[in-house]
Amino acid sequence: xxxxxxxxxxxxxxSAVAAVTLAACGGTxxxxxxxxxxxxxxxxxxxxxxxxxxxxxxxxxxxxQRALVPYAYDSLVALSKDGEAKPWLAESWKATPxxxxxxxxxxxxxxxxxxxxxxxxxxxxxxxxxxxxxxxWHGSTITADMTATSSGNTLTITSKSNNPFLLTSTGTIEMVxxxxxxxxxxxxxxxxxxxxxxxxSVKGGSEYTYTKRTDYKWGPDDVTSDTKxxxxxxxxxxxxxxxxxxxxxxxxxxxxxTIAGPDRDRVEAAGKKSQGVxxxxxxxxFNERPNRPTADLRVRQALTLSLDRAAVGxxxxxxxxDEMKSLVVQSPQTCVEGGPKWTLPPADAAKAGQLLDAxxxxxxxxxMRAKDGxxxxxxxxxxAGTPSHAAAAEEVQAQxxxxxxxxxxxxEDPNGWSTDLYQxxxxxxxxxxxxxxxxxxxxxxxLGATSEKGGYNFMNVxxxxxxxxxxxxxxxxxxxxxxxxxQSAEKELIDRVDVYPLAQTDSPIFFSGAxxxxxxxxxxxxxxxxx
Length: 531
Fold this sequence. Notes:
- One of its GO terms (cellular component) is periplasmic space.
- The chain is built from 14 helices and 22 strands.
- The protein has helices spanning 63-68, 118-129, 166-170, 178-182, 242-251, 263-269, 297-305, 309-316, 349-358, 387-401, 414-424, 439-443, 464-474, 479-495; strands at residues 43-48, 77-79, 85-87, 90-95, 99-104, 146-151, 154-159, 197-203, 207-212, 233-238, 256-258, 274-279, 283-286, 370-371, 374-375, 377-383, 406-412, 429-431, 499-501, 505-511, 514-515, 528-529.
- It has 3 domains: 17-70 and 195-279 and 507-531, Periplasmic binding protein-like II (D-Maltodextrin-Binding Protein, domain 2), CATH 3.40.190.10; 73-186, Dipeptide-binding Protein, Domain 1 (Dipeptide-binding Protein, domain 1, Alpha-Beta Complex), CATH 3.90.76; 283-503, Dipeptide-binding Protein, Domain 3 (Dipeptide-binding Protein, domain 3).
């Protein structure tokens, strides 16, 4: 999943720190989780760093949107941080390499009072499998070669080809109730799922209020509406300033917020506990359309070879620099163990200059480079709302100037991301991040159709070696073989500089007056208010 903006129509894809919506893996201990301190009722308030817009679980793609989806929608299984599947809407399942049969729990109902059936679950899969519907999960977890049937309380999903991750893919899509499937547009500003909470108030650009249902009995780990410590309401409050969010957390007006910038240290000093969230804050993607200088591999190589990775990494992570070990960063971090197969070459400004010469960009007057009289100017995007991005972008600009490359820095807001990445395509590179939890989801952005054709490949990457290995991985005989292939495929992206994993950090979600389990985001059924 990307950081901020995927496609223009949905204002999605990729930069900065999104609200409380990133993957957790490691990090510090969460707030006091002793059940003796749990107090039922009250309101759990989370910070959203931008307005989510459409709330549809079928098409919403930004991290802020996806963070809100689980409050109203459940999946068939619940994954733990280590990838273990637990019963949720399904009480059990049996899988083969090409099919999986779920037995659904009895008594599951929708927010509109209707019964959630295996037939409705099958209709969800069919809807997601239809490419014409353009859903979030199509092509990654639900593919066009999948079919779904139901009988009584059983759901059977069949794949025409081997699928080594059939349980984790089909089991984790959020299920929509039948009325929502019948009228998908109704889900943009209303909810209709089996989740613990139901959307009850929308104040666009300000607040989104969810109210706890009183009839919920099927949560993971036996959570029900009566479980001690659950809040009566959840409010997503749009707060675009990280400093303001920190102040509201410290004053008790917010219960959870992601803070990755300078305010992180003062919140930690105040004793607020957190759960770590892997955040590829310094990851760089490239526009490879034919009219851009970054379409040339030699230019991409030169730009990355000229960077002092550690120096830029320290700035972009605000002093919390970690090297990236995989392009998969969200839990359950599928196919990360034992990797990576790629290595990043050391900085080499001399070689960078030679590559630019070979690409037809010799140095001219003042030491700056041009081709056929046209200056080499790189349009570099970064997130205006991420405090550490500006300083790091300026460092990149300074380092590229040393090799004769001019850099135009562009601080983006949500509308700017949408315009540049998905409408005008007027960009070359920048701090633009993807944050998938599986290599299959990652493949959407490199293997799939370009955004001009309705896909997620907004960079116009055409990496045939990656494509071939990825296709093999998707139909591998077993997970171990699949993971080996996926790691080889990832190496092809790095070697061709389709993506540059410059730096990541452990962005914490801080809590005040409450605790919760953080996986890819906050799990709503795990929220507990503290006395």
